[in-house]
Design goal:
Layout (H helix, E strand, L loop, with lengths): L2 H15 L3 H9 L5 E2 H8 L3 H13 L3 E6 L2 E6 L4 H7 L1 H4 L3 H18 L7 H8 L6
Antiparallel strand pairs: 1-3, 2-3
Helix pairs in contact: 3-4
C-alpha cells in the first residue's frame, strides 16, 4: 500500500469514529478540559452506558485520554486542537442561498405533484407536521 493510500485510510478511519453526532458532541464538550462520565451524561442527556461506549471508542482510537483520580475517571482530549477543526468545518454544512432556493422550489413542485389534497406549500406542510397543540 502506498503512503498516500495508507494515510487516506487512516483519515477515513478517524472520520468514521467522528461520524456519530454524540462523539462529536463529546469532543466539543471536552474542549474546556477534563470531564467524568456523569458530567458528560448530564450534558449530553444520554445514558451512562451510552456515554461509556462512545468514550471507549474514542479512547481506542487515541482521540481521548483518561485520568484516574480516586474512584473517578476523567476524560480529556488527546489533541485539544481537534475542536478547532471541527468548528472550522461548520461552514461546509451550511447551504448557500442558491441551494436553499433550489430545494424550496423542488419541494414546492413535489408537494404540488404528489399531494392528494391539492396544492400545499412547503410552509403549510411544516405546520401540518408540527402542529401547535393547545394548552
Amino acid at each position: 500500500m502506498s503512503h498516500r493510500a495508507f494515510i487516506a485510510q487512516q483519515l477515513a478511519d478517524l472520520f468514521a469514529v467522528l461520524s456519530h453526532p454524540v462523539r462529536i458532541r463529546i469532543v466539543v464538550e471536552l474542549r474546556s478540559g477534563e470531564l467524568c462520565v456523569s458530567a458528560l451524561q448530564e450534558r449530553l442527556a444520554i445514558s451512562h452506558s451510552a456515554v461509556s461506549q462512545h468514550l471507549a471508542l474514542l479512547k481506542s482510537h487515541r482521540l481521548i485520554r483518561e485520568n484516574k483520580k480516586g474512584r473517578h475517571v476523567f476524560y480529556r482530549l488527546a489533541m485539544p486542537d481537534m475542536t478547532a477543526w471541527i468548528v472550522e468545518a461548520i461552514p461546509f454544512i451550511v447551504p448557500d442561498d442558491a441551494d436553499i432556493d433550489q430545494l424550496k422550489s423542488a419541494a414546492e413542485h413535489a408537494l404540488g405533484e404528489w399531494s392528494d389534497c391539492g396544492a400545499v406549500s412547503v410552509k403549510d406542510s411544516r405546520d401540518y407536521k408540527n402542529p401547535v397543540m393547545p394548552d
